[in-house]
Amino acid sequence: MSGTTGAGPRTSLYDHAVRLHERHPDGPLPRDGRPFPDEPRPRRRPRRTEQRRVGADVAAALDRHFAGDDPPEALAEAVRDLDVPIHRNDHIAAAALRADRERVRRTGRWLVRHGEHQYAVAVGLALLASDHDEDDIPLIRTIGLLSDTFGPLAAAALQRRRGGSDALVWLGDRVAGWGRVYVVEALCAVGGAGARDWLLRRSCDRDYLNGYFAGKVATAAHLHEAITTGSDDDLVDHTTDLLTVMAYCDGMGTTLEHYPPAHAVLEAHLGHFERLRPTAARHRRGTRLVDNLAELRAIAGVTAEHRARLLDRYRAVLERDEWREVAATTGEG
Length: 333
Fold this sequence. Notes:
The chain folds into two domains: 1-40 and 50-190, no CATH class; 192-333. The termini are far apart. The longest helix is centred in the last third of the chain and has 16 residues, at 280-295. Helix 5 runs antiparallel to helix 6, helix 13 runs parallel beside helix 15 and helix 15 packs parallel to helix 17. The protein has 18 helices and two strands. The protein is mostly helical. It comes from Saccharothrix hoggarensis.
């Protein structure tokens, strides 16, 4: 919604997301869509709240709103200065379930579509995340493009809907950073053939935050089965990235040290890697994998001697004349 007030034109965050997506249709929005067109008045600093009470004041505002007949605009104003969680919250979910389902749905849709500040939109998403109406998928998917702020609730809402997996895959190709973490984790939970194919071939974008989900992808998408029973270039290339991340993500997620099929996956990947056509990107990513594998404390099921042999074989590929030549042409030799 765009309106005119004394402060000038106002833009909903949904319209903001749509306009940016029109300029960047196939990838993440620059700076995750920031700056947002929030109203200029400063937001009051919220009081510090005990963790168990986070969201309770928002739930109370929802109870008051649904007990009356005020329009959604009034709820948007009521939550403007509250500390609205960006993740699913038990207090808010319970308030949504206490109210009339159809009114909750209408209110959530209005807040997501017309909300002019982040807190109203987050409350709207939380309301929609308590429901499972498939008609809301395009709305949720679009606001999810502003993924650092709305990714957690958008992913949770899509995860509840039949057809949400396809929307999560679409969103996964268009978010980065923390937003990608939320979407990938939701796809790991949803499962299904389409989700598995995307997870195995496109989930890692080589950002450091991939460490939070690489092990989950390997487990949920059955990487062991995929790489040992067949392969294609996209699967092999992406497995290079997954293994690289799992070699450095200690403290973030499952590492190769604690991934039971590590031995079989590395052997299978290496066999496919030896047959790949050399490219500069493959040389660069293969080199990074070798460096990370060499620094690991341990790899599940792999002795020190076996690791040395694996590394020698990887290095032998990277040092082939045709691989070195392609690296040299891009200044990597």
